[in-house]
């Protein structure tokens, strides 16, 4: 059971155990900086659910596991202060905005964002996202290659800005805007915890980018002021919003909050989208299940709506499992303002405490076989995430991600379109399956290139490959499995395929055609049916 300040008076002033190996001045900075996840995992394995390390002079206490997470997330702001720890965002969001604002102002500013990230406005977002995805892939053709992360970054900046900021902001976006965002993201660096304004090129580019973005945003605010017709988007909601005392947000605050919202949702969602496709591309079985669900649910041209996106549990579980293994925020930080107690330990005021979604998600007692990608964990029968504060990719408590529903909507809408149009194959699997820990928001290491092929073409290829029994050599389908037809055994398709007449048609010459060209009959399923119904067992399907 969790022991919190309020439940028990702690008598011994026992400090959390410390990690060995701190260097003079640097502390554990070098090890941590090299790979923060490896380091935190090592700390958990060495010291357990609470342990201390040092970044330069700063003492940090890492807390992991459901009980420690609960204590972390439920502590009041006056004791564990989020703002203090996120001061590194001040150069990006602006002075006096969100994490730099006094607590009562910060709470009100965050509250002003809530109406646009929930409920009613969400219903319109699904269409906007679908439209953006369709536009992004309009010129893809039958086949090609993309860098997955770059693609997702571009797509999600369009989807989130279009949904949250409205049409005119979306259509004024250009390459300059993308570059500004890139420089802001690069400016979020662990070094900024200690020296936020060090004259490094990366921080100089960050500050320049922020100033330029404010110019652009302020220009749009001014244009809107001259229009008689009012927009109905987050931008307008912020223009119209008032504090409890009736005063309005300043242009500087609006700019900062818009940056903050887009920023909070952009890189986190892009990384998750890229990881989702990377994981699915490596796992034909999971991909087949997702395709089956999407094809069944949406059909060929089924409309992707807010409601229909709520009814695809297989894809939802896949995204949840991606977020378990690859949470973009691998650690969350609070500054201890008043001594904080957890079980038998006291963390002294002045230190920082961290929770780590990534480490907590890999505790075998909570998620058995934790490295295994297994979306079935969330099934009704298993419910491995049922224990409170075990699955914390979106954080928890008062500061739980306010954009979580919007993020899930975006991800589901994106894949409801992409996966029904194209299949994806990793070009260099080994290189494309790594996290980039050099950024505070962890994403797949770029480049992570994939080859895409229009699904209809894949189906035609399957028909061809199965129709030619002299293809004794194995045929590599672009889908993560191999079809082998043994010429010695094969007695002609006309015999074996009659068992599945609704799926295959054989002409007089023995050539086979796959029926039902609609995408819901996916390649793997067809191939497995062929294997199943071949009486001579000439067809073999091997998952790669
Ligand atoms: C997969 C995508 C996302 C992930 C994994 C994610 C994760 C998180 C986490 C872990 C926190 C808590 C931080 C803490 O406790 O210190 C958080 C907070 C927040 N997120 Fe997200 N987020 C995502 C997408 C979004 C989106 C799309 C938006 C908005 C458009 C958004 C807006 C926010 C805001 C405003 C907060 C601050 C909440 C508060 O302090 O009251 N996030 N997010």
From TrEMBL:
Keywords: Heme, Iron, Metal-binding
Entries under InterPro entries matching the protein: CYP450_sterol_14alpha_dmase (IPR050529), Cyt_P450 (IPR001128), Cyt_P450_E_grp-IV (IPR002403), Cyt_P450_sf (IPR036396)
Sites where the protein binds heme: 401
GO molecular function: heme binding; iron ion binding; monooxygenase activity; oxidoreductase activity, acting on paired donors, with incorporation or reduction of molecular oxygen
Cofactor(s) for this UniProt protein: heme
Stretches the record annotates as Disordered: 1-20
CDD domains: CYP51-like
Chain intervals with Polar residues compositional bias: 1-13
Tree of life domain: Bacteria
Family indicated by similarity: Belongs to the cytochrome P450 family.
Name of the featured protein: Cytochrome P450
Source organism: Methylomonas lenta
